[in-house]
Structure of PCD23 protein:
Amino acid sequence: LTVSARDGGGLPSATNAAVTVNILQTGSAPAVFERSRYTFSVPEDTPEGSLIGTVKAREPPNSLEVVSYRISSGDPHGRFSIDPQFGIIRTKNQLDHETQSVVVLTVQSQLGTSPIYSSTQVNISVIDINDNPPVFLTQSDRVTISHTQPPGTAVYIAHAEDKDSGLNGAIKYSIASKQSNAFSIDPSLGVVNLTRTVFADKQHEYTLHIAAEDSGIPPLTSSLMLDSLAAKIVILDINDNSPSFTSSPLSCVMEDVEVGFLVQRIIAKDPDEGRNGQVTYHILSGNENKAFLLDKITGLLTTAQLLDREIQNRYNLTVMALDDGSPALSATQVLTIIVLDVNDETPIFLKQLYETAVRENQDPGEFVLKVEAVDRDAGLNSLLRYEILPGTGYEKFKMNPDSGELVTTASLDRETQEVFSIKGSPSRSSTAQLYLMVLDENDHNPMFAKTQYQISVREDLEEGSPILDLFASDKDDGLNGEVMYSLIDDTFGVFAIDSVTGSIVTTKALDRETKSQYTFRAVASDCSTHLPRSSTVMTILIQDVNDNVPKFEQSYYKASVWEGQSPKTDIIQVFATDLDSGLNGETEYSILSGNENATFLIDSARGILATNTVLDHENASSYREMASSHRLVLLASDRGTPSLTSTATVLITVLDVNDNPPVFSSPEYHIHVKESIPVGSHVTEVSANDCDAGTNAEITYAIISGNDRGHFHLDGKTGSVDLMKTLDYEDTMKFTLIIQAT
């Protein structure tokens, strides 16, 4: 079952109650209470064990079982007890009406050992007695009023509480002691009213003792004191005085004080009264890092952070004292706070690691280095002393405890021990590492791995190509062991060496045909003053690359040969040179063009050009520029891969032999002329052709018969026939001239 509760006003309970009812299968009947609810009342001051009331449950008819009683709920604090046999309820502990005015008990009855119960509700009202006096919430209070307030003005409300109820809790207020008739109090409400103005009173403060009394029998009372009314309320005072500081402007504090430490109590006085004389304190400047906290009411200045003299050893706070007048007046003071030193700083070396070098084989007392530490403390707290902590080789050094200077106590030998690692310490726990290196003497030369190098490189390497990385080692250290490389002897500007890495590179293009081998020396030297050095001989062999074409001695050759010579007659020998070596420089010859009908042949190795057939000067062909010449293009090829070639032109002239007679263009010439033509006239012209050339082909004409009387003239060169005498048809009708061409 779900059970809800409502009060008389109809408001429901915040939560519901769940009731579980178990139905037992039994034929027994329970003992039933005479009433379902019992109501009793008892004064709260009833002694323990007092009788409150009795409950009664009746057993079923014919039952021989005994009824027993117990309180099942409603008494968590055990203030009541019940007689299990007779059902008598008594007080067990002291009751208190103010704690609980009504108690609701649930009492159960059981018949013998039967599991069946019955219950009843017992309401007990705890009757109040007047055992609590009225109590004011505060023991004292303070109010302020204006001197201009009219009579009847409420200036204060007194309030007391009484835990009792009814008349025992009804409170009446009264003024127990009157210093003035200026005030009255409402007995029911506790309101204090002005009965007249207080403007003319010289008294500035009034203390009223207010009593609170309840209406119980006998009544109980309590009192409340009201003091300092007028002194704080009546505004007769003019705010004509500024606060004035009376506390010291100088304060000192140790740097190791805890947060919240009281540094100074700042005090400023203001002779005005009331709010005009109430002073508050404020920090205007100098506290940007919020190192201090100032209570504005009490003027107590405390530390808000941990102080550190080494960060800031002095604070100048500008403090303002401000009254509560209207308008408010103020005064300022510069408070100087000096932070006193505490030895809380550890000395710190300027460097955690000191590194230096010292020459070996020096006399004891040689200055090595000076270490320095700083301590941010002041005075004696900042004085330092230095010492060397024990370690390997530390006995060979000594440190000045005051200056921090480190000197040797023995001669050092780098080959025995090169590095010393020493820890130095001032007197208060800071340490620094001293890393000492013994300086080397230059007693070793740089040494190449070999005394000579021979390498081969191709001549087609690009400019700047590396050909060899030299390396020379030097057992010395520092500058004495830093090797620098250089080249001596003439490299013809072809090679250079990196002075640091020893890499030899080409500085321009190589040409084996110009120079096939370079020999020079490379030098390794260290950087010391004395410059000990060593050298190695470099031999660079330049490998040939087929980069040169065979080149004929002439690009154009002229040669001649008599016609009619037998085949294999040598005509001319040509030469082509190749600057390369080996197969790249071996030249072969061939005829590229112009050798129609294989008229000529050439020796591929020697370059000898010869006839391959019998030549005929008069046999003109289309492949010749002229009847008597041949133009051949010769090719010279090397045996490189790929092969390079060049060409030359040979003009071969076939010389003429006079083996051909002149031949007239016509065997007979028939000319008709008039007898009347004048002397000197051109009659005709004969022409003959000779297949030979040159002088062998030059023809001379002559009349060998038929011109006995000299009528005609023949030009021996041109073959022109002219009339020399007058003709007479009647005398001679026909002339037959025999002309010879030679």
Observations:
- The mean pLDDT is 85.
